[in-house]
């Protein structure tokens, strides 16, 4: 059973009344549109003659009834436009029902309408549309939240509850139009990056989301099962191993924008489903990749903001290259004062204990170093900074460093204390790669549920030969957070993962009877839209008494009226 508010009940009655008048509140035919609100505001002053036969559609967002004439606002995808409605214009005959009943009473805020008319300027100088005809396109059965703004347009009482905004993004986008700008900017970031890659001749591809072996990153996967093949599958945690197969197959550069899925925690910068782009370019190394990343991010920032400096919280971040470079060991020594470069696992465990860093028995040397780095270094990396040359234990898929034993050729880009990009000189020695996978299996045996699995087909591909290659992954969600000055990942995802909504416990007949309510009066309660015990307890005694007696008579219930004392006992 659906619980309805008084407004929702009233809107359903309006829907029925429209249908009784022969008006379909959800017509099937298309509605022709030849202008938008934004276009009218922008171009009408210079070309008024071109706006004498305008057709526009959108939501009715406000209305001021003034007798035989009214002002209202319509909102389309581009913005709002004031409209002027005159009774005799939309009802030229003697029958004024459409204005007096339909427009004034049965139309509601949030309803979609299509209108035809001409644009003019009011005496106060506001560009408006004088309506000749109105067509109802979709009746809204739920009222929109009322967002209050001052004369300058600043919101002072809005739809701001994060739980509701993220869960009901469709409402958020409707009543908070500025939210759309974040997602338009997100789209520009992706299209700008795609254009950059295409201009360099790299091929956009698609790889499997359902994978028999999870690999390409250290993360816990989501498990599923294919019934026909009767085999377990995983939602991909990365697309790296498939993209490198394509480099083996002869492509010089491939990239993919796609969803990744990691069965891990949720916080301000993590969502279990996220978007990244991964790109692999043959005959390149991680040093070349650093220069490419600087170039692409700088160009995207300039294309969006017109400059390379952007505000992020209370800081100003400059994305102009070149970026600072620190090795992993150098960064830990600089910000913690400890040199971990020569420490074994036992030594690292002792350091973690001294620093108060929580660790687990399953963690090997690589993860222990990563924990120290996360606790002592990340928060200091505000301006774009490359952390380079990671311990080999941390990166099973990267090539061994050309000059530093025990390290690999890898970098991560950190901005405002968060990692937004990760890149390697890719490991293309199949024997070395097999040994690294075997080390991962040992970690998995110790209980590390983020350790990589053995991928025999990927090893087979490497055995056919892969050219020297550099690979990169960029987190689109986090990059968007930086470039739109948003502090949580939920702000840049249309539909972030949410906890299940709390279920409303609908009261049964037995629940009401247990309170002393006669079974025969329960239909009256339900007709009053009282469906839970909490709703019942919130009622005013006198009002409920009068309402119950009225409903009993209207519904012709074969049961006596309750006394006021009876009603008082129900609520106590």
Automatic annotation (TrEMBL):
Chain positions recorded as Mg(2+) 2 binding sites: 419
CDD domains listed in its UniProt record: LysRS_core (cd00775), LysRS_N (cd04322)
Positions of Mg(2+) 1 binding: 412, 419
Subcellular location(s) per record: Cytoplasm
GO annotation, biological process: lysyl-tRNA aminoacylation
The organism's place on the tree of life at top rank: Bacteria
E.C. code: 6.1.1.6
A single GO cellular-component term on record: cytosol
Residues making up the signal peptide according to the UniProt record: none
GO molecular function: ATP binding; lysine-tRNA ligase activity; magnesium ion binding; tRNA binding
Keyword line: Aminoacyl-tRNA synthetase, ATP-binding, Cytoplasm, Ligase, Magnesium, Metal-binding, Nucleotide-binding, Protein biosynthesis
Cofactor note: Binds 3 Mg(2+) ions per subunit.
Pfam families with a match to the protein in the record: tRNA-synt_2, tRNA_anti-codon
The protein's required cofactors: Mg(2+)
Catalysed conversion reaction: tRNA(Lys) + L-lysine + ATP = L-lysyl-tRNA(Lys) + AMP + diphosphate
Domain Aminoacyl-transfer RNA synthetases class-II family profile: 183-500
Assembly information from the UniProt record: Homodimer.
Family, as annotated: Belongs to the class-II aminoacyl-tRNA synthetase family.
NCBIfam families cross-referenced by the UniProt entry: lysS_bact (TIGR00499), PRK00484.1 (NF001756)
Protein name per UniProt: Lysine--tRNA ligase
Organism per entry: Rhodonellum psychrophilum GCM71 = DSM 17998
Gene assigned in the entry: lysS
């Amino acid at each position: 059973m659906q619980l309805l508010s008084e407004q929702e009940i009233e809107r359903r009655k309006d829907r029925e009344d429209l249908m009784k008048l022969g008006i379909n509140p959800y017509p099937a035919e298309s509605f022709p549109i030849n202008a938008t609100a934004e276009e009218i505001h922008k171009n009408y002053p210079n070309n008024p003659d071109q706006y004498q036969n305008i057709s526009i559609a959108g939501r009715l967002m406000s209305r001021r009834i003034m007798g035989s004439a009214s002002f209202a606002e319509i909102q389309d995808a581009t913005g709002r436009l004031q409209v002027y409605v005159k009774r005799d214009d939309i009802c030229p005959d003697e029958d004024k029902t459409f204005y007096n009943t339909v427009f004034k009473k049965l139309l509601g805020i949030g309803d979609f309408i299509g209108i035809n008319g001409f644009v003019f300027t009011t005496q106060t100088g506001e560009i408006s549309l004088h309506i000749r005809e109105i067509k109802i396109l979709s009746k809204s059965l739920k009222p929109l939240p009322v967002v209050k703004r001052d004369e300058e347009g600043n919101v002072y009482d809005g739809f701001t509850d994060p739980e509701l905004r993220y869960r009901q993004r469709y409402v958020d986008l409707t009543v908070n139009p500025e939210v759309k700008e974040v997602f338009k900017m997100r789209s520009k970031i992706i299209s700008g990056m795609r254009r950059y890659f295409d201009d360099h001749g790299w091929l956009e591809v698609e790889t499997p989301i359902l994978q028999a072996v999870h690999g390409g990153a250290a993360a816990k996967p989501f498990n599923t099962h294919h019934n026909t093949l009767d085999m377990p599958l995983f939602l991909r945690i990365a697309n790296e191993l498939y993209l490198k197969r394509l480099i083996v197959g002869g492509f010089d550069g491939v990239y993919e924008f796609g969803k990744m899925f990691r069965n891990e925690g949720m916080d301000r910068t993590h969502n279990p489903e996220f978007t990244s782009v991964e790109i692999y370019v043959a005959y390149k190394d991680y040093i070349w990749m650093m220069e490419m990343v600087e170039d692409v991010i700088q160009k995207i920032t300039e294309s969006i903001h017109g400059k390379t400096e952007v505000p992020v919280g209370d800081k100003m971040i400059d994305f102009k290259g070149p970026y600072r470079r620190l090795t992993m060991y150098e960064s830990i020594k600089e910000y913690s004062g400890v040199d971990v470069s020569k420490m074994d696992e036992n030594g690292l465990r002792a350091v973690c204990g001294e620093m108060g860093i929580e660790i687990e028995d399953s963690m090997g040397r690589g993860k222990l170093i990563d924990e120290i780095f996360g606790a002592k270094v990340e928060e200091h990396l505000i301006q774009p900074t490359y952390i380079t040359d990671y311990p080999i234990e941390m990166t099973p898929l990267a090539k061994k460093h050309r000059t530093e034993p025990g390290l690999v050729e890898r970098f991560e880009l950190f901005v405002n204390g968060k990692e937004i990009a990760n890149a390697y000189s890719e490991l293309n020695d199949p024997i070395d790669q097999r040994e690294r996978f075997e080390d991962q299996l040992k970690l998995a045996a110790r209980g590390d549920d983020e350790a990589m699995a053995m991928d025999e087909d990927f090893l087979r591909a490497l055995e056919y030969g892969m050219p020297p290659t550099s690979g990169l992954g960029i987190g689109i969600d986090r990059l968007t957070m930086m470039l739109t000055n948003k502090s949580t990942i939920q702000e840049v995802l249309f539909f972030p993962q949410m906890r299940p909504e709390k279920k409303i416990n609908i009261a049964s007949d037995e629940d009401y009877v247990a309170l002393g309510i006669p079974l025969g009066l329960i239909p009256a309660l339900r007709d009053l839209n009282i469906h839970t015990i909490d709703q019942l307890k919130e009622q005013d005694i006198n009002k409920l008494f009068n309402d119950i007696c009225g409903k009993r008579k209207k519904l012709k219930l074969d049961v006596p009226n309750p006394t006021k004392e009876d009603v008082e006992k129900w609520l106590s």
